[in-house]
């Protein structure tokens, strides 16, 4: 009998895809953003996808949509930006009980799955409420009140074959006692032969993840295209799978000046290292910006894992050899999404802060880059899933 998974705060579905790759059945999702829902539904056509603000979805609707599906596992990455709430008078604004975490708990209370798994930023470990309680302790306590045994650990994505330095906090709450809720390390970035002799595989590098994708320059590429090269290694073969076409491999429409700026950069250089005449200009001006953005547009080293693919990664990284940012598909490869997984919505949108400021709320969607950067890397999800499924079915 397959393990059934419901993904809350699902985004594009990276975490639940990891479970699917491990043999689980993805039965449903709850997600606020319409483009992310479109992506999820397209790639999981059998799943029940509920789009909406989870705080406004009633208990009745959650039960009506999902209780008959009997999910064994509920996943969730509730946004925990400072655990802020609209009504600052409602107790401690940094208390997770006043945050979207409470919605994750509510779904667990309603559906009583065997396992609940929450993922979040590692800094959550250090977070404290205004009354100095550790936030992670409150989270564990709330899950224990539902009858779960709770453990948490920070996992490093490169330890599971993800070619990207990405650390995530994973909280596993289970009805039954698990031998170990967390998967053993399978990969290493070290060249130390002793580690490789221990049975660890070498984690792919950035270039090993993307080198078989079609060569395109800035302003080139298509939302759907043909492969032009054969796969080079097992990682590429695995992510290609049975895919006959390539999706979302379209380069950004960089200006000539931006391409020149990228051309001046070596591996490891960022915007703050470029010659003076190529420095960024102030918005709508011919004057140079005084701000040096050290994290913006850093040229990645091909023979190392990539830095963390964040929601705004279209402006974070420069391709190791091309004078352009990564395409959405290159980001998806680094995140370990298979090539058949298609991202819907526009590739990029105007800054969310700008849309908020100008009241253009109907345009505020998660673009392809946001969806990819926000996701749990599927291969990290798969490692967590394989370890759990073995114990649940055992």
TrEMBL record:
Biological process terms in GO annotation: DNA restriction-modification system; methylation; negative regulation of gene expression via chromosomal CpG island methylation
Record keywords: Methyltransferase, Restriction system, S-adenosyl-L-methionine, Transferase
InterPro entries attached to this UniProt entry: C5-Methyltransferase, C5_DNA_meth_AS, C5_MeTfrase, SAM-dependent_MTases_sf
Transmembrane segments: none
SUPFAM superfamilies listed in its UniProt record: S-adenosyl-L-methionine-dependent methyltransferases
Catalyzed chemical reaction(s): a 2'-deoxycytidine in DNA + S-adenosyl-L-methionine = a 5-methyl-2'-deoxycytidine in DNA + S-adenosyl-L-homocysteine + H(+)
Name of a matching Pfam family: DNA_methylase
EC number of the protein: 2.1.1.37
One Gene Ontology MF term: DNA binding
Enzyme class, broadest EC rank: transferase
Active site: 80
Family (UniProt): Belongs to the class I-like SAM-binding methyltransferase superfamily. C5-methyltransferase family.
PANTHER family attached to this UniProt entry: CYTOSINE-SPECIFIC METHYLTRANSFERASE, DNA (CYTOSINE-5)-METHYLTRANSFERASE 1
Protein name: Cytosine-specific methyltransferase
Highest classification ranks of the organism: Bacteria, Pseudomonadati, Pseudomonadota, Betaproteobacteria, Rhodocyclales
